guanylate kinase (Jatropha curcas), 239 residues
Amino acid sequence: MGNTSKPKSAIPQLEKASKTELLRAVETSLGSSFSTDPIRPPPNPLLIVISGPSGVGKDAVIKKLREVRENLHFVVTATSRQMRPGEVDGKDYYFVSKEEFLSMVERDELLEYALVYGDYKGIPKKQIKEFAGKGYDIVLRVDIQGARTLRRILGNSAVFIFLVAETELELVKRLIDRKTETAESLLVRIATAREEVTHAENFDYIVVNAEGKLDSAVKLVESIIDAEKAKVRQRKPVL
Ligand SMILES: Nc1ncnc2c1ncn2[C@@H]1O[C@H](COP(=O)(O)OP(=O)(O)OP(=O)(O)O)[C@@H](O)[C@H]1O
């Protein structure tokens, strides 16, 4: 004969009992009540490093990402470079003098910094701590040299996304169209970009920002963030 052990209490017939009665009866039968705790704890705040060659569209992707995604804090980089037309101090960058920048370095206020094309750029630590503490995901925008340094500092605690154009030609066209470079600085940026695109292996993901397809690139970055937040083993921000 089959199992002869009796349930602790009778479970009413499905069609006769209300949902509440059924739940109570099953709980009684199991000897414990059903938990209302979330089955998965809230994911850790994610540190997202977005990098890529000059002119690939890092700013454009991040701007759009901030429009479509909540709970995201973009860390405003401090720089000693001149403001470009349309840029806003404190929104696009913190524009500071070289002297001010160097005193931030001395006070150990920057996670990393570098001299890029003759100008200093660095990531203020305070914003990361403050916003990650509030549960925000943090976006860092760095050039490839900066991404390399950050990988050394942060290891696998952050997700590293490498943005590329579909071809070298498209990247150069985009830089020319932006009209922010002199012929000389254009050549330096192109030469650097040629060398830099060979470093994709330092990154976790590569995203193509193709001409006229900014929205697709942003969607892919969003999917990466979603997938990262669904991971069983979460990255733990080290800061
Ligand atoms: N998918 C795209 N299609 C067409 N144009 C784009 C696309 N993405 C960005 N752009 C344009 O390309 C130019 C360069 O983009 P952006 O300034 O965002 O690059 P960046 O990577 O932030 O450059 P840098 O590192 O030099 O600051 C801008 O004029 C931007 O509007």
